[in-house]
Amino acid sequence: MLPIWKLNAGLRRALGGVLIALMISAVIVGDLFFGTTGRSAMFAGLFAWLAALCLIAEITSAQRIVIYIIAGIGVALIALALSRDAAVNFNAIIGGNARLLSMIAAVGFLRLVAIPPGSDVIGSIRGWGAYVKTVLGVSLFGSVINISAPILVADRLSVGGVLNRFSSQSITRVFSGCSAWSPFYGGMAAVLTYVPGAELIFLMPVCLPFALVGLMVVLLEARTRYRKEVADFEGYPLGIENLWIPLFLAIAVVSLSLLLSEISILTAIASAALLVTATMLMVRSGPESAMKALSSHVINGLPGMVNELLLFLSAGIIAAGLAGLISTGLLVLPAMNFNSFVAFAILGGVLALACLGVHPLIIVSGGTPILLALDPSPNLLAVVYLLAWSLGTSASPLSGTHLVFQGRYGVPSWQAAVWNWPYVAVMYAFSLPFLLAVEWLVTR
């Protein structure tokens, strides 16, 4: 049998997709039969690491350097922890992020049904109405099918493969806002993984208003600052007849959580995404065509999540190293009350690091073991992280969204990030009264 690295690129990519599918299956089946305390995450984690080995050649050399740096820092932290006789949880390195990655991968299947061909355009319109419907479409569908929605819109709005500033910043800001509340984003998955006690049923309705305020800021700026661009804007409003799909998903997630209390919320989301996708495909085109579509996505679609796969696995190494160091007493914060003002300061620090290119995931995975020593309210800490993920995605030149837009539409990632800094500053200012309100809610 040939080693993985000697297989040709096509076989490696296909094998990577199959291994990711096995990762999803191991998490769902394991949780159903053994609960979240079983070893299903370990088996799923092994599939994830093998998939990473198959797919690492798919990313650019610059992205590989970033991954190597993150993993290298994690290995150094583990070595330091071991040198101080600390216990390092190697099981967490292998399977700690397996449920999180499985949820992200399973949600990717939704793009097969969320916007079917021929239902995505409501006529040819121009001006303010077109702009409003376009950004609403990005927000609504982006909250479910993630990066596929802004790509679908940006492909239509780009001219000669190039996207102008107005369209680029509008799409990225609105899309990034979805990660503040949507359960189908890596941000929510990371928060539910790393913050014990964080509750999805609290976080979604509480953080949705923050995203809505961000949407209003985008619309207000467009109305007052970009009048000419709005007047000339040819919209790409997404079909409102498909809005029942997010509702169907929400019902499925809640139902699975209530019926199968032994599974984690991440596994419930992953299962709901797969169930909705398979059901819709069979209803629309029959079992045979559904199987072909699902199989094609496994081989051709799942390998596309290689960036998330490598990033979350690398972050798991850092988290394990920091947790080991904390157990030695080497990393300790001064005693303080974790209130909304401390949360506001932490959010500002995370956003400053995001502007320098540090991914919010590194802060979430690395900083949580340290911050938990302050005994924060889990939901307040989770809200801070969700806001940081949302605004940090807009502010960071190395965020996945900006890198996709750079490669696909010729918008330099650093320039796109700088364009968004004024918006991030406005939303950061708004976050203080917002966090005060959240603190009041969690302490009632």
Relevant terms:
444 residues, mainly alpha
Report on this model:
73% of the residues lie in helices and 0% in strands. By secondary structure, the protein is an all-alpha fold. It has a domain at 4-311. Helix 6 runs antiparallel to helix 7. The radius of gyration is 21 Å and the shape is globular. The termini are far apart.
Layout of helices and strands:
Layout: H1 9-34, H2 40-55, H3 61-83, H4 90-95, H5 98-107, H6 128-145, H7 148-157, H8 165-178, H9 186-194, H10 200-225, H11 227-231, H12 244-259, H13 265-285, H14 287-301, H15 306-327, H16 340-355, H17 360-371, H18 378-395, H19 400-409, H20 413-442
Which oligomerization state do the chains in this entry correspond to?
single chain
Order of helices and strands: HHHHHHHHHHHHHHHHHHHH
Percent of residues in helices: over 70%
Mean pLDDT comes to: 84
Helix/strand/pairing class, anyone? mainly alpha
Shape: globular
Q: Give me the count of strands.
A: 0
Which stretches of 5+ consecutive residues score pLDDT under 50?
Answer: 119-123
Write a compact overview of the structure shown.
The protein has helices at residues 9-34, 40-55, 61-83, 90-95, 98-107, 128-145, 148-157, 165-178, 186-194, 200-225, 227-231, 244-259, 265-285, 287-301, 306-327, 340-355, 360-371, 378-395, 400-409, 413-442. With 444 residues, the protein is mainly α.
